[in-house]
Amino acid sequence: MVRLVEFEAAMEERVRFIEDTPRDQIIEKSIARLNAGEDRKALVAAAALAVSRSTELPADHHGGPVHPTAGIHAVIGMMERLGEADRDLPVLQCVALANKHIHLPSMGPAAMVSFDDLNRDVTAEKALARLEKAMFDREPRLAERAMTLACEKATRGQILESLLTISLRRNNLDDHYFLYPIYAMRAADAIGWEWAPILMRPVVRFLSRHASFDAFGEFDEASITEGIDLYKRFPELEALFDEHGLSAERVPEKTGAHETAAIEALAEEMGRVSTIAAIPEMVARAMGQGLSLEGTCEAMSLGGGRIFLRSHSNNPFDVHIHTGIAARRYLIGFPEVSFRNKALALIGWAWSYEVRYLDHTLTWDWQVGDDALSKAGADELLAGIESGILGIDGYDVTNLPVAINHLVAFDAVHDVTRLAEAYMKAGHDPEDLFRLTTALVSREDASEMHAYKLQQAAWEEFHICREPWRWVHAVSAVKQCAVVVPTKPCRVYPEITLSLAA
After folding, report:
1. CB 321 within 8 Å of CB 307
2. Is 180 exposed, middle or buried, given 0-12, 13-18 or 19+ CB atoms closer than 10 A?
3. Domain containing 396: what range?
4. Do both 389 and 343 map to the same domain?
5. 138 and 104 together in one domain
6. Within 13 Å, how many C-alpha atoms sit on residue 362's CB side?
7. C-alpha distances in angstroms, 374 versus 9, 175, 231, 428, 482?
8. Could you give the 3-state DSSP secondary structure of residue 4?
């Protein structure tokens, strides 16, 4: 007898609300629930569960539970730092996105079967071995069963180590093979690990399938061919690990003040590259010279931020520099993840497709040279940034003049970025700047929470990285905000404002 996944009564009601409410009513009805005292975090959790149990993975990574789940961690983070007037915005966007995916014929509705016949008399090691074999053999249903057991028997770090056996190699084909598992785990961290068996089942289904490269409409044939080539060249990354003699004994995990000069040197070298795919050698060499895992990640974070600010790209989905580094920082913290996998994750970052393709966009000078800007007050600069962003007439992603990877940012995006750099270098409050970008980004829905993920990653990296270079992350948040907020179509925020005004 087949039985579908169900939750305890209160959560089941929330999940069914998101699944069953018509798309044209979801905003109005969600606002009514929040006004009646619905817990914001519980509604976000329900959105994650609904999109996980009631959508199917499409051929590419744009759809189903991939991005809605990966954005949950950012939604919670943004919600917590917004003022009361704006705190509902990311929640409503999250609910609307889950509801949209469930109601689109290409993704939903779907049904998640409950595994009532699992043999739970197994060890964590046995469950993880089954998981790895199922993913390697491309057996998605067996992988789901094994993941359900792993969530009961194993630690988060042990599960992550098993997922890396597949996702590290596949990263060169498509970053989402690496990012989706990690951000799904961060989603479970944010809403409660008791929901991990539901959130992680689509993840291993994603990792267990045969990739359909032709489905990636935004990638041209050369990019696909390059990705396949780099996938086959993964042994070159492993060779860098060996050539530089990397080991846990030689490369410490923790950083400290003694590494500041080495971190800046690597960040500077990375920040001025013309070919991003050349970075793995730099990263492996720095670790071979004794730079810690955390120090290497910090240098990559600062160098990656500089690369992002050099890019003229106006692609609203260009967030993987920041989200990829934040994901790698997350896995460094797990003692169960092997040193080799941690180091290979750092070395392989630059071979991620949605990082390495930006070579042709590195045309901007990100250094401010206007003394007048540096003398402006904080309020004046913040007002200029906000009005500048809201004054941009952005692209419509449903009707683009060129391929999305070749969109060039408007001059106004560059102008706003320079204002943000002047703001930070004048020593003004970064939290005011992040609150502004967070509130503005909460209005957009064209990027399906890509913008949310960059905002959260930039905020996290800003607070982890050291002075005097961490300003690049605050400015990156503004630059990406200026790209994505004007992007069309924007359907959800107008509905929110109309419902609130009624």
Report:
1. yes
2. buried
3. 371-493
4. no
5. no
6. 17
7. 57, 38, 46, 11, 20
8. strand
- Residue 274 placed within a domain: yes
* Both structure tokens of 316: 């609203």
Task: Going residue by residue through the chain, which has 502 residues, state the pLDDT in tens, using 9 for 90 and above.
Answer: 689 999 999 999 999 999 999 999 999 999 999 999 999 999 999 999 999 999 998 877 788 999 999 999 999 999 999 999 899 999 999 999 999 999 999 999 999 999 999 999 999 999 999 999 999 999 999 999 999 999 999 999 999 999 999 999 999 888 999 999 999 999 999 999 999 999 999 999 999 986 555 545 555 666 667 777 888 889 999 999 999 999 999 999 999 999 999 999 999 999 999 999 999 999 999 999 999 999 999 999 999 999 999 999 999 999 999 999 999 999 999 999 999 999 999 999 999 989 999 999 999 986 655 555 667 899 999 999 999 999 999 999 999 999 999 999 999 999 999 999 999 999 999 999 999 999 999 999 999 999 999 999 999 999 999 999 999 999 999 999 999 999 999 999 999 999 887 7
Amino acid symbol at 198? I
Classify 299 as helix, strand or coil. Answer: helix
Comparing CA positions, the residue from 218, 16, 176 lying closest to residue 109 is 16
Same domain, 301 and 422: no
- Spatial CA neighbour of 385 closest among 423, 430, 349, 350: 423
Q: Is residue 119 part of a domain?
A: no
Residue whose token pair is 């940034």: 385
What is 69-133 written as a DSSP string? HHTHHHHHHHHHHS-TTTTHHHHHHHHHHHHHHHHSTTT----PBP--S------HHHHHHHHHH
Please give the single-letter amino acid code of residue 443: R
Where is the domain boundary, 160, 178, 210? Answer: 210
Number of domains present in the structure of the chain: 4
Asked if 316 and 377 sit in the same domain, the reply is no
**Residue 321 CB coordination number (10 Å):** 29
Which value, in Å, is the radius of gyration of the alpha carbons in the chain? Answer: 22
Side-chain-facing half-sphere of 95: CA atoms under 13 Å: 32
3 found inside a domain? no
> Cα–Cα distance between 424 and 419 in angstroms, integer?
9
